[in-house]
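Notes continue from the previous slide.

Worked example: a multi-chain complex. Inputs as given:
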Amino acid sequence: MPEIKTEDVYIELGRHPKAGFAAEDLILQMGPQHPSTHGVLRLECVTDGEIIKKAVPKIGYLHRCFDKHAENENWQQVIPYTDRIDYLASMNQNFSYAITVEKLMDIEIPERAEYIRVIVSELQRIASHLIAFGTYGLDMGAFTPFLYAFRDRETILDFFEKICGGRLLYNYIWIGGVSHDLYDGFKEECMKFLDYFEEKIHNEYNPLLSFNKIFIERTANVGIITPEQAIDYGLTGPCLRGSGIDWDLRRDDPYSIYDRFDFEVIVGKGEKGTVGDSWDRYMVRIWEMVESIRIIRQALQQIPEGDIISEKVGKVVKVPKGEVYGRTETPRGELGFYLISEGGKGPARLKSRSPCFSNLCVIEEMSQGYMLADLVAILASIDIVLGCIDR
Amino acid sequence: MTSEEIFAKLKEKFGDKILETDTEAVQPIATVDPASIAEVCEFLKNEPDLDFKFLNCLTGVHINKVEEEEEEKLRVVYNMESLVIKHKTALDVIVPISKPNVPSVTSVWKTANWHEREAYDLMGIVFDGHPDLTRILCPEDWEGHPLRKDYVVQEFYQGMKVPYPEEEPKQEEKEEK
């Protein structure tokens, strides 16, 4: 038998000092089944004691090849698939796809449908941020906030169930409008809920978790993303704004009717630690819920009567040849669709640029030098959904 | 800046490396010589009045053949924007399927790293100069690139049968028959 040198093998395997692997290093697999990875994500951590030298995300456990499915379906049949990209914010995903197709079709949407779209996607934003709030508490060892968050999220899901029948996956925002009109009494119910919910943010959520001393100690100054890093890695949504960058598609590249509403873009200020730490990203989400409430209130006051779906869109949607990049601001950031139409019955190519996919790739650089326990705090602060990453 | 101005600036700097520009389309786009895409992106990022520091999306496309004799082609589309000046643009490169090599732009934007890996994984576009060009969404030992038009699913993956058993034909297919 030919002689195999132990050293050569270990250099090739990357487990040798010459390959950058020190004797004291240990490779630790976090996931794929781990309570704090929020799904099936594996982090390959090279650790020195409890210090993380490197944490490399390994993804793809939930890959269904959405792009390939989309190529084999017709224009409307893609919408239920978009629900499943980010299953915690399905309304926003529907919205993003509908906007992309409409951009290419160049059609006007009835006023009432535009308002309904804004109302449901802002309600969805609140529901999604509530999950982020609840699970962040859970990951930090606080169980109670999770129950509070689910109590209030339930009301929003009930609204959606009454509007369109679905609680999680809606298929509600269609090309040219929405599938069902709001039910009678929605306006009053929703207004009542908003009043109740705004008070709860200030009097329950914030004292319970946001300004809790233990929570601040765990999250402030942990997992700092500098503004340069955030832009270079293509971060969007609360992760980008948490790093102090004032950028929100709803204001800076207004789609639908967002230019009619008065709201603020929340950015991280480093109140409890450094700008761009985990607490900042968390707090951006909390204050964004308050801004969403403001938008919904204005929308409910302005909403006109009228059609809910454009008459120009028939049963068979016809999309002219061309290509376009359409996007919206979802709770996790910019969800874009790169759509190529060849005039056929479905998309010729549809790439989804999911926010979580880009947000996660920064973790390798930002987690260096923190303790292993901080990795949980960092991961939760990015608020990933694995369906959105793997698609 | 409008797309015309951006493309004019590119043409002035790179001349015939900018093969084609289309400002009439819904999304204005400039086709760039594949060999110089990294330099063009570097210029777009660092020029102060262009300032494209943010890469939104990188898409791999398998172009449908128009004529039968034509060689099949792959395409990469880059969508980028400036968060300060608030303008955006798109570039693309076209390469033959037999030699699908495109220079990597990972050194320009770090976010391109994962997007290029995805394009390699699903479309089989090889990005030269990429630090770690491995599969990202499919398993490492998967065969073929699923988003290619001529892709056929492998029969077995590690001893497991991959394609689902034959399904009932869809309603509309039945009607056609």
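Summary box: Helices of chain B lie at 3-14, 37-46, 112-123, 171-176. DSSP finds four helices and nine strands in chain B.
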